[in-house]
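Course exercise 7: structure representation. Students receive a sequence record and must write out the corresponding structure in token form. The form below is the worked example handed out in class, using Beta-glucosidase (729 residues). Read each field label carefully; the graders check that inputs and outputs are placed in the correct fields and that the protein name is recorded exactly as given.

STUDENT ID: A-19
EXERCISE PROTEIN: Beta-glucosidase
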Amino acid sequence: MKRFRFLSSLLFAGAFCTSLFAQQFPYQDPSKTVDERVADLVSRMTLQEKAYQMMNSAPGIERLGLLPFEWWNEALHGVARTGRATVFPQNIGLAATFDPDLVKRIGEAISDEAWAKFNIAQRMQNYGKYTGLTFYAPNINIFRDPRWGRGQETYGEDPYLTSRMGIAYVQGMQGNDPHFLKTAACAKHYVVHSGPEASRHSFDAEPPMKDFMETYTPAFEALVKEGNVQSVMCAYNRTFGKPCCGSSFLLSELLRKRWGFQGYITTDCDAITNFYKHHGAAKYEADACALAIKSGVNLDCGNEFQSLPEAVKRGLITEKEIDQALSKLLVTRFKLGLLDPVNNNPYSKIGEEVIGCKKHVDLAYEAAAKSIVLLQNKNNLLPLKKEIKSIFVTGPYAASQDVLMGNYNGVSDHLTTVLEAIVGKVSAGTSVFYRQGVEPSAPNQNASNYAFGEGANSDVIVGVFGVSGVFEGEEGESTASNTLGDRLNLNIPQNQLDFLRTMKQRSKKPIVLILTGGSPVCTAELSEIADAIIFVWYPGQEGGRAVADALFGDVNPSGRLAITFPKSVDQLPAFDDYSMKGRTYRYMTAEPLYPFGFGLSYTSFQYSDIAIDKAKIKKGETVTITTKVTNTGKSDGEEVVQLYVTDVKASTRVPLYSLDGVKRLKLKSGESQTVSFQITPRMMELVNDNGDRVLESGDFKVTIAGSSPSPVAQTLGAATPASIQFTMK
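STUDENT ANSWER:
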């Protein structure tokens, strides 16, 4: 390690002395093809230089005019870990918008800020971690179990929604310039990876092949085929007995041969050490490195590939195999234009002024507003009137900036808490009282608490409760978690529940409960305590403002749950069971607390006049279905129209219903619109027990609604869905 750092420092310093674009070598000639330039550059490197170029902190090579390059950067919901940036809602909140176009625009904004930061770093000759243009995002793992602490990073539990959101993010990040890749996105963590965090370095995921191809792989396949994602990150764990980063089936057969992936494959950081520390797949580091290369890996996020020369010396791998792996990796640097004259690249002119600019702030606000999910609104308590006489604001997160951000976040100088936003929203004559009232998880030490009296003396109580990043997240970041970031109990912390019970009993005033977090809060009693409940996730820098606007009616909530809220963990299979039986809205038969796709509005919607162009079709034909959606309430609003398809007579286990389409409609009070969906043969296919997609004859039910078709959705206030059937002969 010391030898590596010393050499890196020498090369890093020396790189400044050579002009990159003196065109001393053919690889520096932009008129040549990328393949020609890559081949020339690789041919000029020593074996050790090649190995070091395949680690995330690639050093410069002075004699070749090659500057250092850092492959590791983060941008899950904004440029992260590198100073000021626009902080958008955490991904599980973005998923609640059901709005791929919004996510694409966010990707465009993030990539603009990424280039601004990159250009600044280049001028400062800063080539350190988090300064490059290749990002380890998006996380498109399926949030199959709500206990997983990193589920907040995902787009939820549904393969279709995850695919659409992931593609949109990639398209926004990578741009559409015909000559240059804007930034490089990375689909992670390939492929069956969603907790528990405590065993993520060692467990072996062995789902049924049907579930593997039906649930775990579709998003990755979609991002490769439709999104043209530039990179894929293989996960820490084993899948079907092989380390994900050492599986030729996953990396070479499925990813490259079947799906046609052309980009580079990176390991998760230090994943290669797991080969010999946890998986028993290799004895020494050199063996592990050889296995990774032979399986299809191109980049080591870590320092393990410094053992590649030893692997060649021992005959474990050939230099030609290293050349092939390195060549695939270097293509990305050329596509980014980083080895061209600076003036050739249109993105090199993006300046610091885009970071946190008004356009991006407005976009962060739009995303936060659309992510808010209204779960309950007894007696139409919300929206509140701005002229209300008095409000008591309380809860551990009312004045918290931490709950705005989520993990893998940037930092912003534009963070507005819920408390601050409420104070700025109400009329000058409204009295706003605030006390935190309760700790996030520890019981109060002082038996005296003024909060209850102030609650009783106010017209309404607004409480911000739930969980934060100290309770859920990645293995080493959740400091209040004794389960390495997973939430094995999905209830609200007991001390918060006790406080709310007492507040309800003593105040006798209506309670608006704002819940934060990146996973379900499944305490059913909250619906009895609170009059109104909204779930706001980790809503980003503009989250406080968006929440206040929702409370007072300037925003009509339109978010929808991208994950099922079970009534308790007792409804869930074992956490480490990767079979989909009993999991997510597609296979869960028990009645949930709140179903997937659910969310209320301050207005009401009606679905009617559903029609189909053909009630009987042949295999391979497409069906068009239309329905009318009417805003029957008194307020303007947005409806998230969801299309679900069910194979009624399948030969094997199939989902109860599958999301296959989404459209957001803005409807004024009394307005109607007709929406149309096409049911393609792909939507009618089932995945059999061998993992093959098959088109079978039979009956299909199509449901169009504002929620998944769970019966409890209507009980909770969702509109009655419109359904129709057709037959395929």
